[in-house]
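Our preliminary data section would be incomplete without showing what the modeling component actually yields. Below, a chain of 327 amino acids is followed by its predicted structure, encoded as tokens that our downstream tools consume directly.
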Amino acid sequence: MPRPLRIEDTGGIYHILNRGNYREWVFRSEGAKEAFERTLFEACERAGWILHGFCIMSNHYHLAISTPRGNLSEGMRWLQSVFANRFNRYRRESGQLFQGRFKSLAVENPERLGWLCHYLHLNPVRAKLCSMEELANYRWSSYWYLRNRRKRPAMLALEDGLTSAGVLKDNSAGWRRYAQYLSWLQEDESTRKKMEFTRMSKGWAIGDRKFRKSIVAEDREMRPRVQLNFKEVKKARELQWQAGLERCVKVLKLDLSAAPTSLKSDDWKVGIATFMKMRYMAGNAWLAEKLYMGNLTGVSRYASETQSGQRPRAAKYLKTLTIRIKN
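Predicted structure:
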């Protein structure tokens, strides 16, 4: 049976979720939750996503994101694979960490997005991980960042929940009123029913019947062109990578024609490859071919070593590119 097509619009809004394989408690420890949160923020920065809300539970996660670049699958592939590699390396384990592909539900409009944010923020209470009174201190949720404004990453935008709760301001008074709103919502079953809380993680879309039918129609229309679209997207993505690579070489005042005869792990190559992976999510195989770095496993290892401080000279090239190339 063919996999369902993911409709990936530029500027699309999505509810993303996935569970641990065999419903394992992937996020049992605080360290695992912290590592996933850190990787999530990295993914958002790399992919240019806006994170409207999130909640990390014991064996699954929920995200509310919008994708200005229309790169949902690419970004999610990076998020889940990088976290799985880090998790398995730390635990000295191997194997599939999540239940395969993530689930995504398209969100119709800002109103539904606000409802989704309330749903995510109340998740720990519904799961009995904490009481309503303790919710503000549940560390692994975007709700925690509401009162910890100085620690918020730049891509975390929390105004959707505040606006939905009565156009509240992002200040201490607004936070108090939002806490009161969530407490009321947790007790008001009829309003939760109106907001369709029971459907937030089901189906393929969060919206009215007309919106859900439009998603199905779009899916059917696009299926015959899936392979063609994939090739077009791949070509466009590689053109973007090529432009980025040429920009890196220009900034560093290097000659790309020297790549075939220089070492596979030359510092300038590793610095560029690490930057390309971080800024443009360039693929390892593509980088290995263009920079003559051997196989894709080597590219991944060199980049990891650079980021961990094991390759200080390559890190200098990376720093220069990060400072000089802003978009």
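DSSP finds 13 helices and five strands in the chain. Residues 1-6, 222-228 have pLDDT under 50 and may be disordered. Preliminary results of this kind motivate Aim 1 of the renewal.
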